[in-house]
Amino acid sequence: MNKIAILILVSLGSFAQTKVRTFDQFAVSYGLNDKVSTTSLSLGQEMVVGKDIACSFGAFARLNWNSLKPQSLESKGDFVNDELGILNKSNVFSLSFPLSASIGFKNLSFGGNFDLASWTFGKTLDSKRFTVDQASAGLVARPKGLSWVLSKEESFKNLSNQLYLSYTFDQSFGIRVGMSSQHITYDLRNLDTNGNVGTRENIFGHTYMYPFISLRFNNEK
């Protein structure tokens, strides 16, 4: 019995001495496939628990620049047979707020992150810049604005997720490589008699899967 008590006390003492470190983190990322290229800048904080075997948890703000090549987006609304054809290269921007978690051994770790919320913005496309099965006269297409993880519109969320392997060269610099899944959605809206953007007619979007690489810069607090 005494041996068990001593073992418990030793374990509690070891846990209490586990080092918890907090880092300010800045990262720049780039990823692409045949339909989109994405450049991202993120800033946030990461908490690391442990040393040789470590777990980390982070919260960030991330600015994304998505460059879409001419392509067709699938209908996500009531008109399931429609497609939105983007005729020219288009830029879609988003400000997202991801959470991250990882587990690792020494310098190598595996982790992921997912967006809690995102605000998407970009140039509104007039009828000269897109085609649609519906009559395009009097219609515009623009990136969907606010998305968040608890939204009921499951297929309409402009959110992203990432899985990655990370290698830390020292506590101030590391590199990540992995796969990103990002959903981008356009609202098709009508124009009123004064030329103002009106009600939503349909929703079009696509989920992009692409490899990415990220450089991380850390500053321990």
What does this structure look like?
The chain is mainly beta and 221 residues long. It has a single domain, classed as Porin, CATH 2.40.160. 7% of the residues lie in helices and 67% in strands. The protein contains 1 helix and 13 strands; from the N terminus they run αβββββββββββββ. The protein has an 8-stranded antiparallel beta barrel. A hairpin with a 3-residue loop joins β1 and β2. The protein is elongated, with a radius of gyration of 22 Å. The protein starts with a helix and ends with a strand. About 5% of the residues have low confidence.
Task: Walk me through the topology.
Elements: H1 2-16, E1 20-32, E2 36-49, E3 53-68, E4 71-75, E5 83-86, E6 90-105, E7 108-122, E8 130-132, E9 139-143, E10 146-148, E11 160-170, E12 173-191, E13 197-220
Antiparallel strand pairs: 1-2, 1-13, 2-3, 3-6, 4-5, 4-13, 5-8, 6-7, 7-10, 7-11, 9-12, 11-12, 12-13
